[in-house]
Amino acid sequence: MNQPNKNNKNIEQVNYDIRPREVLIILDDGNKVGPLGRNEAVRFAEEKGLDLLLVSAASNPPVAKLVDYGKYKYEQKKKDKENKKNQHVTENKEMRLRTGIGEHDLEFKAKKVREFLTDGNRVKISLKFRGREVARPEYGKETLDKFFGYIEDLAKIEKEPQLNGLFLDMYVVPKK
């Protein structure tokens, strides 16, 4: 038994595939015709050399539009391709530091964070405390401030440094 796929709700209803018995037709110039029976509406579209596309099945009566379906599908594909091309997914990157980190190591890690920021990513800078270092979070804050000095021309602080267990976390995002 061949049953229609009920999971795919994005299937467009065109011409004789339109389920509602009556439809209201919208012409290219915005004028409305109908409501007409489904078969009568399809014949009306064929007389004009166009296809009948169901736009809104939820309205009463359902609304259909006269279109050249091949051209319509081409335009939709083109629009989807353009949207996909313009879409940028921002990722969350993380850089881990320690309180006693050396100057050169700090510069090196800052260089990597600069790369993340130029790619448009959000960066979480985590400073890990060991042992009794947790009792002196101001040392960690100093290290984070020093680190931010290397990247402040590219970044702005999204979330101020905050102590989470053994980590002092700060979030930075690229400047617009």
How does this structure look, described?
The chain is rod-shaped. By secondary structure, the chain is an alpha/beta fold. Helix content is 34%, strand content 31%. The model is unreliable at 1-5 (pLDDT under 50). A hairpin with a 6-residue loop joins strand 3 (51-56) and strand 4 (63-67). Helix 3 packs across helix 4. The two termini are 57 Å apart. The chain has 2 domains: 15-85, Translation initiation factor 3 (IF-3), N-terminal domain (Ubiquitin-like (UB roll)), CATH 3.10.20.80; 92-174, Translation Initiation Factor IF3 (2-Layer Sandwich). IF-3 binds to the 30S ribosomal subunit and shifts the equilibrium between 70S ribosomes and their 50S and 30S subunits in favor of the free subunits, thus enhancing the availability of 30S subunits on which protein synthesis initiation begins. One of its GO terms (cellular component) is membrane. It comes from Spiroplasma phoeniceum P40.
Features of this protein?
rod-shaped, 8 strands, Translation Initiation Factor IF3, initiation factor, four-stranded mixed β-sheet, 176 residues, T_IF-3_C_sf, 34% helix, disordered N terminus, 4 helices, Ubiquitin-like (UB roll)
Which secondary structure elements does this structure contain, and how are they paired or packed?
Elements: E1 22-26, E2 32-37, H1 38-47, E3 51-56, E4 63-67, H2 69-86, E5 92-98, H3 103-118, E6 122-128, H4 137-151, E7 155-164, E8 167-174
Parallel strand pairs: 1-4, 5-6
Antiparallel strand pairs: 1-2, 3-4, 6-8, 7-8
Domain Translation initiation factor 3 C-terminal: 91-175
Function: IF-3 binds to the 30S ribosomal subunit and shifts the equilibrium between 70S ribosomes and their 50S and 30S subunits in favor of the free subunits, thus enhancing the availability of 30S subunits on which protein synthesis initiation begins.
Subunit structure: Monomer.
